[in-house]
Amino acid sequence: MATFFVQLKVAPVPGSPQAEIVKGAYAYCWIIEASPSAAFNKACFYVTKVDWEIKEVIEPAVEVKEEACQESELTRDGYQAAQEQGLAVVYEGWSLDGKTAADLAPLEQATRFDLNKYLSKRKQLANKGRCLHFESGERCSAIIKAHSIQKSGPLAVIASEGHVYTPSVSGGKFDADRSQIVIEKRGIGKLSTFLGFCEKHDNEVFGPIDTQPLIPTGEQVLLYAYRSICREFFVKENALALADSQLALWPPGHPFTVFEDIKAGSARALTGLRRHKENFDASLKYGRFDDVEYVLFVSRQGPTHAFSGLIYPHFDFLGRKLQALEDPSTPMDLITFCSAPLRDGWGFLFAWHKASAPSCREFLSSLAQGESVADAAFRLVISNCENVALAPAWWEGLEEDKKAAIRARVTEAISPFAPIEPDYLTKGLEGLSGWEFTNVLTNVPAGERSWSDH
After folding, report:
1. Whole-number Å distance between alpha carbons of 238 and 194
2. Interatomic CA distance for residues 139 and 133, integer angstroms
3. Distance set, CA 321 to CA 273, 299, 304, 318, 349 (Å)
4. Does the residue 109 lie in any domain?
5. Is the peptide bond before 422 cis (omega within 30 degrees of 0)?
6. Do 93 and 124 reside in the same domain of the chain?
7. E strand or H helix that includes residue 200
């Protein structure tokens, strides 16, 4: 992480408190971030959310050191505030009657964004349960906290005294200078749960993976993938509702569009997830377990991590573009991934519906062409999966610089300001996982795959 400086020329939004005082201003921003693009996006976010319109970019994000920020009290204080709080924004404006900034009192940030209310609303939505089973109805009244990673299996195996480590994504906890997300210790009873199934359907549907290790059978593979999709569907429904609730707080035509962007992205993701969920619903309903393809990397070691997630593969493990996610008119292929207990060791399971085979097969092909499957697979999990648990013995045994590298990757991954770089799966976090895979199992026909199953 580095400190970046951004300078913007801004004007007050009509009707805002600033519009009664000033005609325009300069916004000086010091931002701690992983990249210039993330710093610039964050600066624009914090400026526009407090009733300013950006008129011109005077200075794009440039990295600055402390010694270069000693020329004035403003730059010294701005740099120091960023070290303590993660960012600092100072405004210098000129009044409506033409007076200079020196004649004006410091400008206050009149934000309408209330973080506490935002987090309270998010928690309220997360606690609003509904059954996502395709035959759900009035019978589904006993909604339970379903574990997307089995508590009695993978979580219990890696836990120490009932606790594991996990990134504080939902809690939003950062370290002292707010530059990196915290990896916190949590009880396994509260980890990876979501209110997405009633007790009846959760027990009936997921019994084959909750009560026995992965063999794998077609049914088990489908269920692991289905649970990942249902959890993400639940999360995206909540994200869309949260964006709607925030947009209702802002007047029409306000330039603060971040929640409009979040709403649009969540709506598109939800549309895609609904299509994939319907495919899996049909396969599960009619017992068509061969509709799902998989690749399972087998490890004979004891597990040190438990995780469950999914992505629309945008770039592969060689940095090549697989799908145009920016095109909302194109249906996206989707792949799920998770850890799963085996009778002897554990497995890293990739699974997808045959409707997503084109991109997913290419994605796995690129994994096989890399230097280290273990490094690449671990990089995928840390970069894309908030639903992950780390064994205390493994995490506490890492050197501090390795912990910092993992925290930095998680922080960058969850930041709404950091763009996805094409090479994000090609490098980083080498040698940290300690994973070793002995062989590969797959149901993809031999003539249609470009990797070995031995």
Report:
1. 11
2. 11
3. 21, 29, 31, 9, 23
4. no
5. no
6. no
7. helix 199-210
Mean pLDDT over the full length of the chain: 84
Residue 90 pairs with which residues in a beta bridge?
28
Residue 8 domain boundaries:
2-103
CB 413 within 8 A of CB 32: no
Tokens coding 130: 């509904």
Task: Return the closest-CA partner of residue 223 out of 338, 354, 377.
Answer: 338
If one counts every other C-beta atom within 10 angstroms of the C-beta of residue 6, the result is 26
Same domain membership, residue 377 and residue 285: yes
Helix (H, G, I), strand (E, B) or coil at 30: strand
Query: Whole-model pTM?
Result: 0.80
Same domain? For 87 and 195 the reply is no
What is the tens place of the pLDDT at every residue in 308-352?
999 999 999 999 999 887 777 778 999 999 999 999 999 999 999
Co-location of 129 and 16 in the same domain? no
Please check whether residues 280 and 311 belong to one and the same domain: yes
Residue 7 included in any domain:
yes
One-letter amino acid at 361 equals: R
Strand partners, 183: 167
Mean pLDDT by 10 residues, the chain (454 residues): 88 78 85 84 81 86 86 85 84 70 48 57 77 80 79 85 83 53 84 84 89 94 95 87 76 59 80 93 95 97 94 94 80 94 95 95 92 94 91 95 90 76 91 94 85 54
Q: pLDDT at position 104, please?
A: 47
Q: Compute the distance between CA of residue 301 and CA of residue 246 in angstroms, rounded to an integer.
A: 47
The pLDDT tens digits for 358-410 are 999 999 999 988 789 999 999 999 999 888 999 999 999 999 999 989 988 88
Closest to 275 in 3D by CA, of 356, 216, 207, 213 = 356
Q: How large is the C-alpha radius of gyration of the chain? A: 24
Could you give the number of structural domains in the chain?
2
- What phi and psi, each to the nearest 5 degrees, are found at residue 52? -120, 145
